[in-house]
User: Which sequence fits this backbone?
């Protein structure tokens, strides 16, 4: 337990160790730790930002969805309307067409009737004369009775 | 325990450092030989170690403290070189745990810009802890091994550097020199002298009372100088005292091992209990040494003129 040169040796050793630690050990370790701290802080910030982004995106998606739904509903509505319209139009058209066909048919029938009447009319004199000849048993002067028969035919 | 030695010899043997020093001309050695000229040699007895005076070195103290300091710096610098800022693994996380602990402790007490103080805190904490830690190795293991290698019971070998006042006071002197250096650097030589002489009693500067100024300055100087000197001495002796007492108790417990099976078992139990308690002591003393060093550094940086 004597005090001797060890005292000075220990002091010098102390300075050398402190110098070495301050030069090669401490700065490197602290730098690494500070860098990691920054990394973590950045990461947390990024996570927060991502969280916010996600929230925003979700909100946007919901909005988009509801607007799409609205749009779809509008489209369906429109389509329904249009369908009704088309059906109505088609009905209208069909009716018009039907009317037209009926009208045409009626006209044709009338025409046909008229034609038949005309044909009949042209032959009625002959027929009437033939009938009358048979009834009278003799020929009838066609000329003499032509007026009469024509009058008859015109009445038909 | 060396066979045949008395308890007193056993204890004495354990408290003697391996001393390598200069013996003067005409000195009578332990074996009766007289030295023809002054010689550097290892002391073979307590008397020789004492007679070497200041021109001697405790080889074991210096050897162990340098070995442990280099071990600490080797491990830490290796980790520092390989350190990544990604997830730390194994040794790196352990080292970073210590570094961040020291960093926050130093930042709590030391608020000035100085790139020396925190690394110094780390060095002191780890180094002193490792030196203290040697106390937990059973007291006879390494000395017996060393004596067997060196061949001879006279071979002195102390394993715990901090039980040598040279080691603890040596570090305290280092701290003291840094204290003075930073004081002068921060306040200038005049500021430092003023700090020693103008506090705590401000000497009168005008009026008739000015004749009292030299007396006040003298009183201030005595008070401040004593408190300045007391810092390194208490710093060194506190560590030494705690570890020396702990070592002494380990040695006393080790004495029981020669007292038969029952005593031996009881001694083993006591040694275990004391070692467990000592884990606390060695860590606490390393921490106290570091914190006080930091506080002294902060005091050296603290400028009274600004705060007043």
Assistant:
């Amino acid at each position: 337990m004597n005090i001797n040169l060890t005292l000075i040796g220990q002091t010098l050793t102390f300075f050398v160790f402190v110098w070495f630690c301050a030069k090669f050990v401490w700065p490197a370790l602290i730098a690494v730790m500070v860098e990691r701290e920054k990394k973590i802080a950045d990461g947390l910030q990024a996570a927060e930002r991502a969280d916010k982004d996600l929230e925003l995106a979700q909100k946007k998606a919901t909005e988009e969805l509801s607007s799409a739904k609205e749009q779809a509903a509008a489209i369906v509505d429109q389509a329904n309307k249009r369908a009704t319209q088309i059906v109505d139009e088609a009905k209208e058209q069909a009716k018009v067409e039907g009317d037209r066909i009926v009208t045409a048919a009626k006209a044709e029938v009338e025409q046909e009737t008229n034609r038949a009447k005309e044909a009949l009319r042209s032959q009625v004199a002959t027929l009437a004369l033939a009938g009358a000849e048979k009834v009278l048993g003799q020929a009838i002067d066609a000329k003499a009775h032509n007026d009469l028969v024509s009058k008859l035919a015109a009445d038909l | 325990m060396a066979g045949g030695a008395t308890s007193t010899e056993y204890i004495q043997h354990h408290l003697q450092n391996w001393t390598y020093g200069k013996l003067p001309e005409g000195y009578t050695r332990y074996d009766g030989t007289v030295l023809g000229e002054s010689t550097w040699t290892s002391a073979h007895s307590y008397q020789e170690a004492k007679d070497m005076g200041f021109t001697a070195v405790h080889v074991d103290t210096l050897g162990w403290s340098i070995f442990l300091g280099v071990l600490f710096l080797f491990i830490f610098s290796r980790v520092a070189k390989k350190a990544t800022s990604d997830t730390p693994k194994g040794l790196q996380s352990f080292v970073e745990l210590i570094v961040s602990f020291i960093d926050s402790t130093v930042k709590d007490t030391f608020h000035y810009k100085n790139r020396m103080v925190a690394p110094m805190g780390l060095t002191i904490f780890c180094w002193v802890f490792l030196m203290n830690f040697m106390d937990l190795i059973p007291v006879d293991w390494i000395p017996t091994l060393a004596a067997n290698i060196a061949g001879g019971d006279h071979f002195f070998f102390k394993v715990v550097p901090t039980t040598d006042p040279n080691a603890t006071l040596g570090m305290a002197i280092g701290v003291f020199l840094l204290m003075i250096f930073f004081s002068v650097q921060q306040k200038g030589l005049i500021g430092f002298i003023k700090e020693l002489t103008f506090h705590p009693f401000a000497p009168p500067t005008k009026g008739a009372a000015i004749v009292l100024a030299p007396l006040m300055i003298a009183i201030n100087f005595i008070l401040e100088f004593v408190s300045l000197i007391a810092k390194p001495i208490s710093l060194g002796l506190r560590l030494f005292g705690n570890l020396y007492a702990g070592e002494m108790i380990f040695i006393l417990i080790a004495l029981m091992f020669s007292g038969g099976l029952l005593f031996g078992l009881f001694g083993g139990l006591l040694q275990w209990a004391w070692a467990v308690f000592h884990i606390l002591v060695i860590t606490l003393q390393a921490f106290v040494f570091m914190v006080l060093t930091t506080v002294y550094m902060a005091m050296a940086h603290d400028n009274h003129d600004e705060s007043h």
Residues 258 and 264 of chain B are 7 Å apart (CA to CA). Chain B touches chain A through 55 residues (CB under 8 Å). Residues 213-255 of chain B form the longest helix (43 residues).
